[in-house]
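Many introductory courses stop at the sequence. We go one step further.
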Amino acid sequence: MSASNTFRDVFSQSITRFVDMLINNGDISWFATAILVVLFVILYFTEVAKYMLIGIDKESIIQSTLMVFATLLIIASYQLLFDNVHVLFDEIGLSIQEAATGKRDPFYLFNWVTYSLTTIFLLEYARWRRHLCGTLVSCGHCFAIGHVPY
């Protein structure tokens, strides 16, 4: 396992522990449940007001009921759901990167950009330093990005 994958695993585990701590904390859990109940009550009164004003709207009642159950389902199984979604999108991103660059290292693009910017800044610094010291009158405008001079 590469160092970048190890870093990502440690970061993911830290976030998971943090979110679990927030959810299992009594005050935060109580507050989140209270907000959820308030929003469900507002939804219920909205549906009752619609019924009193325009009559029964089966589609709206079904949609609201499904939204309540979907919200409860997501809250009950957030960790499993978000872990699977994260893995799915991570694999899609790494597959696109592999098709474009031939590498599956998650930090490949970051390392390449860091190397390129360092090279550009060092070349510019060396050019001006030599120019100001009088050892080199002009070296032209040569920038190196990665291993390809532009």
